[in-house]
Design a protein that fits this description.
Blueprint lengths: L4 H8 L5 E5 L3 H13 L4 E6 H6 L2 H14 L5 E8 L1 H10 L4 E4 L6 H16 L4 E6 L3 E3 L4 E2 L9 H11 L3 E4 L4 E2 L12 H10 L5 E3 L7 H9 L15 H6 L2 E6 L1 H17 L7 H22 L5 H8 L2
Parallel strand pairs: 1-2, 1-11, 2-3, 3-4, 4-5, 5-8, 6-9, 8-10, 10-11
Antiparallel strand pairs: 6-7
Helix pairs in contact: 2-4, 2-12, 5-6, 7-8, 9-11, 11-12
The chain binds glyceraldehyde-3-phosphate, 1,3-dihydroxyacetonephosphate (13P) and zinc ion.
Amino acid sequence: MIVTTAQLFKHAYGKYAVGAYNINNAEQAMGLFRGAIDSQAPFIIQISKGARSYTDKRMLEAIIRAAGDIFPEAIFAVHLDHGDEATCYDCIDSGFFSSVMIDASHDPFDKNVEITKRVVDRAHAKGISVEAELGMLGGVEEDIKVEEGNACLTDPVEAEDFVKKTGCDSLACAIGTSHGAFKFKGRQSLHFDVLTKIQTRMPGFPLVMHGSSSVPKDEVDRINASGGTIKDSMGVDVNEYLPAAKLGVTKINIDTDGRLVWTRVHREFFRDKPSEFDFRPPGKIFIAEYAKFIASRNKLLGSAGQLADLRKSLGK
Ligand code: G3H
Ligand code: 13P
Ligand code: ZN
């Protein structure tokens, strides 16, 4: 059942974080839904601009609708990840999305406000909520690379001003993470001081953490042992998910970790079976492994086991 992102946030706020997982194909969708049901967790499916053009945006929508039919117990929202203004409008007008993210975080504050406000007005007219971003994460997004020195943490005073001026429904904050597999050098920790200050100024307002993959060492080691050369990778400490959730982080974005599961499964499969050329056997293993991964993450986010209570609170 597709619900609004706002409904998921209302149930989760301050107690647990909803996992927001990117999908690009049917295998990811099957693993995601399977893992969510196995762990009895609500979730957010997010679609990036790149995912929408990988095959065709209509293909992804059809896959998600079909997965919803195959797993009728699932409760989830559909979200545009890192949208520009035009893509936000396309998703708002499609009638399929529960929420969109407008990412104008690379623009100066006033321009970010101006663009975000325009998207909020269009989205709210259709009952769709908007995630915006303030501050700059390091790392690589689809077509933007932020060098480490240029990344900057969200300023709590600016965050409050930004939310007031734009009317956005949730805010992606830069608290030390970055996209991709190379997040930290040396000691790794989220900036809980920044989160605490933001929550004090805006109690009850949902915050979003991007770049939340944990980049498990054993996963990377297995990839490298089967032909990969991923060096110096590091991710977020999974034990910091729940403390962040208690400070108002209601949505935690995980994409890279899923790509690592895919890479490990396929590298190991073809290493061990060099004469194999059927993609279905490794595809099947991937679906099962991704489901296991999703369930394990939902436990760490605190969203596992919340489905029954959420259903009751939605009156379904
Ligand atoms: O933050 C970006 C997400 O991981 C999506 O990545 O733009 O390559 O689909 P993508
Ligand atoms: P990761 O690269 O850490 O998985 O972050 C994903 C993300 O923030 C999607 O918006
Ligand atoms: Zn992101």
